[in-house]
Design a protein that fits this description.
Blueprint lengths: L2 E9 L5 E5 L2 E6 L2 E6 L6 E5 L4 E9 L5 H18 L2 E8 L6 E5 L4 E5 L8 E4 L5 E4 L6 E6 L2 H14 L13 E3 L1
Antiparallel strand pairs: 1-6, 2-3, 3-4, 5-6, 7-12, 7-13, 8-9, 9-10, 11-12
Length: about 180
């Protein structure tokens, strides 16, 4: 049985401004702007009560397809939260035999890893746009990734971890790598 109308509302903070243009949601604040396109989802966005609430509507769908409403509201809530706060990931390098050297270059956007499991080649990986990488002053062998967009920060952290997977060895014994 199809539900005629289902909706969910999101409260907008005072210092955050949201603009809608088609399926594109733009969140602005003093700290910056975030933009996300929802063209792939058939839903309606509307602003209520003098731009203090965002309402997401879905018409004439069954129960399984109505779950898209919450799937759409979660990234918008993350954007509102991220524009007021920063997301921060802390990754640590763990080694048993060979020291892992991590060097940050090019305005904190390029990370170089040297001597991973005793190998001589240098692994270089670029952080996603806007992600700032820094070395922790408190903890040794720790990198701190932070910025507004949670998707870019988590993607950069997983990129670092993916490069440091030990291949052709028993992973139960060789636990060297960078983990978050």
């Amino acid at each position: 049985m199809k539900t005629i109308l289902s909706n969910q509302t999101i409260d907008i903070l005072e210092n955050v401004d949201i603009t809608l243009k088609g399926h594109t949601v733009t969140v602005k604040s003093l700290r910056g702007t975030l933009q996300r396109n929802f063209n792939h989802i058939n839903i309606e966005h509307s602003l209520l009560r003098k731009k203090k609430r965002l309402q997401v509507d879905k018409w004439c769908e069954n129960r399984k397809q109505l779950a898209v409403i919450h799937t759409n509201c979660s990234p918008v809530q993350n954007m509102i939260k991220a524009i007021t706060l920063d997301f921060c990931y802390q990754v640590r390098s763990v080694y048993a035999h060979f020291l892992i050297n991590v060097v940050i270059q090019q305005n904190v956007s390029l990370v170089e890893m040297r001597k991973f499991v005793g190998e001589m080649y240098i692994c270089r990986f670029q952080m996603r746009s806007g992600v700032v990488c820094s070395v922790s002053q408190v903890q040794e062998n720790e990198l701190i990734l932070d910025r507004h967009n949670i998707e870019f920060v988590s993607n950069s952290a997983s990129l670092i971890q993916r490069v440091t997977i030990v291949k052709n060895k028993d992973i139960r014994k060789n636990l060297d790598g960078i983990y978050f």
